[in-house]
Design goal:
Number of helices: 11
Largest sheet: 6 strands, mixed
Number of strands: 17
Protein name: Bisphosphate 3'-nucleotidase bpnt1/inositol polyphosphate 1-phosphatase
Oligomer: single chain
Strand content: 15-25%
Radius of gyration: 20 Å
Order of helices and strands: HHEEHEEEHHEHEEEEEEEHEHEHEHEH
Family: Belongs to the inositol monophosphatase superfamily.
Structural class: alpha+beta
Organism: Aedes albopictus
Strand order of the largest sheet: 3-6-9-10-11-12
InterPro entries: CysQ/Inositol_MonoPase, Inositol_monophosphatase-like, INPP1_dom_1
Length: 361
C-alpha cells in the first residue's frame, strides 16, 4: 500500500475534523449545548475541572469511521482520547456513533442535542462532507512510497481536540514572541498519528490547526502540517522559521527547577504556552528550540502525530526522566498500546546535537 495514499486520507480526515471544530465553535447556541465535565477517572489530573465537548467525541468517531471504512484492517488499531458516551440535559447517556446510515447518525446526534434537529443536521453536513484535497496547498508529494509494514501492523492515535480548555474559553493571549501564542484558539490542534506496532515508532503525523488565522471576526482558516518517515525516506511540508532567539516552550505549570536551569545554565528565553501538540509543533517549525515537560500529564494521543513530524525533520521526542537518569536517549514509543500515559515527561528537540549539549549539562 502507498504511504502517500494513507497520508492523503489522514489529511482529509483532519480537515473534516477541523471543519466540525469550527462549526461547533462558531455557533453560540450549538456550542452551549456541547460542553460536559469528564468523570474523575477520565480527567487529566493537571486540571481541577477537565471538560470534553461533543466536538471531541464526534470528531474522534468521524475519523475512526472514515479510516475504518477505507482501511478495514485498521479497525482494531484505531484509538482516541475520548470515551464516546455523552450525557444530555435530560440525564440520558448516549454513545456517539457514526455509521453508513446517515439518518441513524442524525437521530443519534439529536438525542445528545435534546431533540435539536437543526443543530444535528448542521453537524451531519460536516460528518458526511467529501473533502477535496489541494495537493499544491498541502505539498503532498507525487512519489510512490510503499509502506514497510502491512496495514494490519499499523495503529492510529487520535486527539480530536488538543487543548480543549483553550477551545472552550477562547481567551487569546500572545507571548512576548508574536509567533507563539500563550493561550487561545490558535493553540488548538487536531492530532492524527500513525505508528508501526512492531517497533512502536510513529511514521506519519498530521497536525491540523483549525483556528490558525482569523481574516474576519469569527471566520477562521486552518493550517495543516504533516510529516512522514518510511525507512530512510523523509517527507514533510514544514517551512522552517529562521530565528536567532533561543526559545524553550513550556507549560505554565512547569517546575521551577527546570525553568531556572533553562534560563540560567542554557540561556533560553522561556515561553509558556498551552497544548502539548501546539508546543511540539513549534519545535517542528523551528519557532522554538526545545519543548520540555517534566510532569506525567500527556498521553500517546497527544504526542504520536507531532512526534512523527519531528522525526521527519531528524528531530525526536524523548522520555525526559529516563534520559536524564540513564543518558539513554529513550524515545517515546507506541509499541505497548495498553500504556497510554507518557509517565517520564517529555523533551523535544529538532536538532539532536543541541540536545546532546543539553545532556552534558
Amino acid at each position: 500500500m502507498s504511504a502517500i495514499q494513507l497520508l492523503r486520507e489522514l489529511i482529509k480526515a483532519s480537515e473534516k475534523a477541523a471543519n466540525i471544530a469550527r462549526v461547533c465553535r462558531k455557533d453560540e447556541h450549538l456550542f452551549g449545548l456541547l460542553i460536559q465535565e469528564k468523570p474523575k477517572d477520565e480527567a487529566n489530573s493537571r486540571f481541577e475541572h477537565d471538560f470534553k465537548t461533543l466536538a471531541d467525541c464526534l470528531i474522534q468517531e468521524t475519523v475512526k469511521y472514515d479510516m475504518e471504512k477505507l482501511f478495514p484492517e485498521l479497525r482494531k488499531n484505531i484509538r482516541g482520547e475520548e470515551n464516546p458516551s455523552f450525557t444530555n440535559a435530560c440525564g440520558e447517556s448516549v454513545t456517539i456513533s457514526v455509521s453508513d446510515d446517515k439518518n441513524e447518525t442524525t437521530e443519534n446526534l439529536q438525542k445528545v442535542l435534546n431533540g435539536d434537529k437543526t443543530a444535528a443536521l448542521r453537524l451531519i453536513d460536516e460528518v458526511y462532507r467529501e473533502i477535496d484535497l489541494d495537493d499544491d496547498k498541502w505539498q503532498i508529494p507525487n512519489e510512490s512510497v510503499s509502506l514497510d509494514h502491512e496495514i494490519s501492523e499499523l495503529g492510529i492515535w487520535i486527539d480530536p481536540v488538543d487543548a480543549t480548555a483553550e477551545y472552550i474559553q477562547a481567551k487569546e493571549k500572545y507571548s512576548k514572541f508574536p509567533n507563539i501564542m500563550a493561550s487561545g484558539l490558535k493553540c488548538v490542534t487536531v492530532l492524527i498519528g500513525v505508528f508501526e506496532t512492531v517497533q512502536g515508532n510513529p511514521i506519519i503525523g498530521v497536525v491540523n490547526q483549525p483556528f490558525a488565522d482569523e481574516p474576519e471576526p469569527n471566520e477562521f482558516e486552518g493550517k495543516v502540517y504533516w510529516g512522514l518517515t518510511i525507512g530512510d525516506l523523509k517527507f514533510n511540508n514544514i517551512v522552517s522559521f529562521e530565528t536567532e532567539d533561543r526559545i524553550a516552550v513550556l507549560s505554565p505549570t512547569e517546575q521551577s527547577k527546570y525553568v531556572e536551569f533553562l534560563k540560567k545554565q542554557l540561556k533560553y528565553d522561556i515561553v509558556y504556552s498551552s497544548g502539548a501538540g501546539y508546543k511540539i509543533l513549534k519545535v517542528c517549525t523551528g519557532e522554538a528550540e526545545l519543548f520540555l515537560l517534566s510532569r506525567a500529564n500527556t498521553y500517546k494521543w497527544d504526542t504520536c502525530a507531532p512526534q512523527a513530524i519531528l522525526r521527519s525533520l531528524d528531530g525526536e521526542l524523548f522520555d525526559l526522566q529516563d534520559t536524564l537518569v540513564n543518558k539513554s536517549l529513550k524515545k517515546i514509543s507506541y509499541r505497548d498500546t495498553k500504556v497510554t500515559r507518557n509517565t517520564g515527561g517529555l523533551i523535544a528537540y529538532r536538532n539532536i546535537e543541541k540536545f546532546k549539549d543539553f545532556l552534558k549539562l
